[in-house]
Specification:
Elements (H helix, E strand, L loop, with lengths): L7 H11 L6 E2 H8 L3 H13 L3 E5 L11 E5 L1 H20 L21
Antiparallel strand pairs: 1-3, 2-3
């Protein structure tokens, strides 16, 4: 979890939406930006909408050759939450020391070329 009850995936979605908080975004565009699969992204968007953080609507008109899509954007409450969550995550990552991962037993340590 990142921040107060916010998963890292939810934080990525909030960050993407907060780049242009008043703009309506297609789920597909959010998926491309965040790298999240639809099975992860859409449940997050639904939960955020249920909590009043994101508002969702259908496209106004049926585009030729494809079905209408849902559009998403942050609510005023969502903008506040996104800003606080991103700030908490950034502040938290600055205070976390970076520790090297332990080597697996029996695996040789790799050396840069030219070193002995």
């Amino acid at each position: 979890m990142t921040g107060p009850g916010i998963s890292s995936q939810t934080l990525v979605v909030l960050t993407a939406l907060s780049a242009e908080p008043a703009a309506w975004r297609h789920g597909y565009d959010i998926a491309k930006e965040t790298g999240l699969k639809s099975g992860t992204l859409y449940p997050i968007l639904i939960r955020l909408a249920d909590r009043g953080v994101v508002e969702a609507c259908w496209e106004a008109e049926q585009p030729a050759g494809r079905p209408r899509r849902h559009l998403y954007r942050l609510t005023a409450e969502g903008r506040t939450l996104a800003h606080a969550a991103v700030r908490t995550a950034v502040d938290g990552s600055r205070s976390q020391p970076v520790r090297p991962r332990p080597m697996a037993p029996g695996r040789p340590r790799l050396r840069p070329e030219g070193s002995s």
